C-alpha cells in the first residue's frame, strides 16, 4: 500500500500553506499588547481489544516476554529486539503492510474508522473565542478543560543496520473520538524522507489539533526505512496500532518502545488530566545578523522538553504553528536558544493557560526580536452554539 503523504517540515512557513506562520501582522493584537522581555530577563464507549497496550513503564513489566511486535509481522532473523519493561503491545491484525488492519470486523476498527485514511477535519483554535461563555472570575465555566494526550518526542531507539544514517518515511498518527480520523504526529512521504540515525530524535510535525483522551486513543503507525528502488523493497521499521488507555497514569512522562521488523521507535508522551489546547506562533522580527534558533517547550512541572523548531534564520519570518497541550494551573514555558559560532544564549518566557483567548510576549535579543503568541482553546466541540 502506498503511504505517500504531504509533510509539514520544520522551517519557515510557505505562502501557500493553509495554516500560515506567525508574522507581526498575523499575530494581530499581540503587536501592541505583548509583554516584553530582554536578555536580562466524555465518551462512555467501552471497547474490547484483542491485545492492549500497557499504559505505564511500571504496568508494562508483564510484557517482557513479548517482543512488542504484531502477531502478523514476519520474522526477521537479522534483528532480535531486546526484552525491556516498557515495550508497547501492538494490537493483533493491525498490519498495514500485510493488509490485516483493513480486514475483519473488530469493533475498534469500526469505532475508530480505521478504513478511512483521511486526516482529521478539526482544526486547532476552534474554541479560542466561542459564543455563550459563562464567566466565573477570569475563567469560562461553560467550556471546560479535559484530559489530553501530549507528545514530547519520537526517537529512533533501535535499528537493524550496523551504523550510519538511514532514510525514514511514513507516519504516526493519533485517533481519538472527537473525530477518529488521523491526527498526524509525524508524516512524511517516501519522496521526502528524513535522515536519522540510531538514538536521534525524529522530527515531529503535528498534531494538527489537540488530542482528547476521555476515551482510549489509538496510535496508528506505518514507518519504513528506504533501502531499495521500490517501496516493496524497503525495510519495515514499525507497523500497527497500539492503545493509550484513558486510565493511563496522569501528569507524568511515559515512555514506550514500539518494536518492528528492523528496529524500534521510542515515543515519549504524557496524559494530562486537566488541560487545554495551546497553539504557539512565533514571529522573528528585526533580524540583525543570521543565527541558529531552536525552540523548546515545557509543560507544567514536567522536566521533559518538546523540541518545536531547529533551524537557521537569515531574515524576518513567521514559523509554522505548533499545537501543544497545556496543564491548567501550571505554566507553559518556552525556551528560545539563539546561537552563532561557538556561543549561545537561552531566553525563556512563560504563559498561564486559559480556556480561551491568547497571550503574547516579545523577547529582545542581540540578533533579533521575537513575538510569541499562544492561543488557548478547549476541545468541547460537540455544541454548535460554541462557535463564533
In short:
The protein is an all-beta fold. It has two helices and 21 strands. Strands 1, 4, 8, 9, 12, 13, 16, 17, 20 and 21 form a ten-stranded mixed sheet that branches. Strands 5, 6, 7, 10 and 11 form a five-stranded antiparallel sheet that branches.
Q: Which secondary-structure class do the elements indicate?
A: mainly beta
Q: Give the count of helical stretches.
A: 2
Distance between the termini: 41 Å
What percentage of the residues does DSSP assign to strands (E)? 35-45%
InterPro entries: DUF6598
Organism: Oryza barthii
Pfam family, one: DUF6598
Protein name: DUF6598 domain-containing protein
How does this model look, in words?
- The protein contains 2 helices and 21 strands.
- Strands 1, 4, 8, 9, 12, 13, 16, 17, 20 and 21 form a 10-stranded mixed sheet that branches. Strands 5, 6, 7, 10 and 11 form a 5-stranded antiparallel sheet that branches.
- By secondary structure, it is mostly beta strands.
- 2% of the residues lie in helices and 41% in strands.
- Residues 148-374 form the DUF6598 domain.
- This is DUF6598 domain-containing protein.
- Residues 1-10, 22-40 have a biased composition (Basic and acidic residues).
- Residues 56-77 have a biased composition (Acidic residues).
